[in-house]
Amino acid sequence: MLRFSTAGESHGESLVALLSGLPAGIPVDQEFLDHELWRRQQGYGRGGRMRIERDTAHILSGVRHGKTIGSPIAMTLANKDWKNWEEILPVSPGDPEKHKAVKSPRPGHADLAGALKYDFPDARYVLERASARESAARVACGAVAKMLLRSLGIEVASHVIRVGTAELSRPATFAEIAAIASREEVLLACVDPESEARMKAEVDIALRTGDTIGGVFEVVVHGLPPGVGTHVNWDERLDGLLAQAVMSLQAVKAVELGRGVTAAQSLGSTVHDAIAYEGEPATDPATFTKFSREHNNAGGLEGGISNGEDIVVRGYLKPISTLRRPLGSVSFETREPTKAAYERSDVCVVPAAGVAAESMVALTVARLVIEKFGGDSLRELQRNYAGYCDQIRSF
Ligand SMILES: Cc1cc2nc3c(=O)[nH]c(=O)nc-3n(C[C@H](O)[C@H](O)[C@H](O)COP(=O)(O)O)c2cc1C
């Protein structure tokens, strides 16, 4: 089973990622891995921290001579800011005078609930782990999952479809969305320059007024055959697994599959994707069967199973909780009203959250692909996969 976990504090020495359950023989591209990490750090409205960090994944195990060897992959991502925090956040008891307490919990963060739960006198340790810095370790794991999926012809990409009230004004093709990953400068990761300019204007207002802003990203999986995930058990449904994976990202407050939200206010006849039979064997490798659809309102998922259309997952991001003009809070020391603590912060992270969500989606899909097609080596997996694709093409 494909599993991953992460460890590390936001201002600790390093993030740690552990990924196990991959077959042997997947080519590992360090440049691609680091480029994915770079993408997570980009976007208009990021804070000062992103100017300090330039992430790279240091692979310790599980990869030899450029390929996976089937054993767990351990990676570390050094925090460049550690040199400024070594004395503030030491592993040893250290000097209590140097501790940088978070004395008034920030609304919208785990600060208060976490301090209560873990019996901490201030919110420092809660902040350190709840921070989305952790998502960098997820992106490192997700990059390796993408390398596996690519070797089967499956691609995962994301773009931003809304920032505040500014929305993408037209549909986007998969090729346009995928091309965003190779942009040298990431503004708001929108396929349409006019829509992107409106999105930027919304971020500018938040920057000017000491506020923050949220939005919506869309992740698309292209080239996944029908039959991944299942209707037979609730906890094996691909729709449920994707929703959980994307919802687990910091600041994501809703997940939509396909046209899920508008479908709830529409008539069935306008929502469901009529089925046609082409009769000819498909020539495009991303067309897996002789059946076709008029549109893809279901977002490639019916009954918790992939149906061969692109998987479309949207994540709705709340505005960032740390405000330059902080909201009201209470002092942990005096219990008197005060302003919430402020620590260097982002103003808009929708493109970065999209990149982190690509990783979560890639890891989820890769897990189910490995479960369905099996194999200890990539060659075995590819053979099983090709056999299944032949089977459904001839259906
Ligand atoms: C890529 C990314 C970067 C983030 N950066 C910040 C930040 O700089 N400041 C902040 O207050 N919240 C930031 N967040 C959101 C918080 O981590 C998150 O809102 C907080 O931990 C509370 O968790 P919840 O919103 O999931 O309930 C970021 C989220 C993501 C996905």
Write a structural description:
The structure is a single chain. The protein is an alpha+beta fold and 395 residues long. It has a single domain, classed as 4-Layer Sandwich (Chorismate synthase, AroC fold), CATH 3.60.150. It has a 5-stranded antiparallel sheet. A 4-stranded antiparallel sheet has the order 1-2-6-3, with helices on one face. A hairpin with a 2-residue loop joins strand 7 and strand 8. Helix 6 crosses helix 12. The chain is globular. The model has no long low-confidence stretch (mean pLDDT 96). Bound molecules: flavin mononucleotide.
SSE topology sketch:
Layout: E1 3-7, E2 14-20, H1 30-40, H2 49-52, E3 58-61, E4 63-64, E5 67-68, E6 73-78, H3 82-85, H4 111-118, H5 124-130, H6 135-150, E7 155-163, E8 166-167, H7 174-179, H8 193-209, E9 215-222, H9 238-247, E10 252-257, H10 260-263, H11 268-271, E11 275-277, E12 291-293, E13 301-302, E14 305-306, E15 311-317, E16 328-330, E17 337-339, H12 350-373, H13 378-393
Antiparallel strand pairs: 1-2, 2-6, 3-6, 4-5, 7-8, 7-9, 9-15, 10-15, 11-12, 13-14, 16-17
The site of flavin mononucleotide has 20 residues, from helix 12.
